[in-house]
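User: Could you check the structure of this?
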Amino acid sequence: MYECAAGAAGNDFSLALELAVRDERTQRHTIRTLDPAHANTGTASGLVALLERVWRDEVAQPRATAELRRLMGHQVFTQRLASELRTDSLRLSGKTGTFLHLRHEIGVVEADSGTRVAMAALTRADRRAAQAPDIDLAIGIAARQAFEALRT
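Assistant: Sure, the predicted structure tokens are below.
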């Protein structure tokens, strides 16, 4: 992905970000890995379904899915889904993905009560920004609201 962006922008991350935002508006993709016709794509519901299958050991041997769950439980970046779900009674296992103007995270929130909620947040920025704490915060707020609505 980064090689493709570098090829289009000459290793200039700022230019690559500008191209990504511009191309989003025009639907003309200078960076081929951002073109859904030529790239891997996913949906929030598809990613949630994948998480459900991982938590049920349906995608691989139980040892492999247990290791995946363990690794996701050590999520380093907590500024998105976990930001509004920090309590002693909740655990979040997640995976963050960021590429140019895309900020995504999927995860499973588990309560001490046994309640589990799988969620996915897929976002696109409409402006150039290497960091966008407002988008990360919005993901966290939406995660909290979704968890509260779904656990009852």
